[in-house]
User: Fold this.
Amino acid sequence: MRTAKEIFSNLIQIGMITDDAEKTLENLEKTLGIGPFRVVEYPPKDEIDCKRFVNQMPSNFTGKFCFFNFGNIEFEVIQPTGGENIWSEFLKMNNGPGLHHLKYMIQSHEEVHEHFEKLGIKEIQSGASVGLNKGRVWAYYDTYETLGFYTEVMNEKKHEENI
Assistant:
């Protein structure tokens, strides 16, 4: 088995959660010059069968996703818009918006799951990727207590079937 340093060597995204995407994007542009963002709904209306899970149980959560690229690192702003999900829980737990996760491109979900299982860290939310990443799967692990943020992973290779 590869080491943690090898598994998590490809950081691709920094993510934050907000309860007001429009206001957050406006503040990011005004304060840091970040923008414009690409804004999409998750799941897209034409992907109604997009599979999503919370604590490995089927779910119908939705969100507004906003993306800006800093070279190789993507900055993501998520506004939860419906259903049970870790994003809404984060807003409640923190009394508002904040930095939420680091996302890594990985070779194998099985390898990541094994690594975190040995540490007692659970997968808490996952789903089928859409758009440019269709055919990939993303998953969040509850590293919040250990690291102060969640860890998200997405497999490198696209598959014929989504989860």
Notes: The beta strands are 11-17, 38-42, 52-54, 57-58, 62-70, 73-82, 98-106, 123-128, 137-141, 150-155. The chain has one domain: 4-155. The mean pLDDT is 92. Residues 21-32 form the longest helix (12 residues).
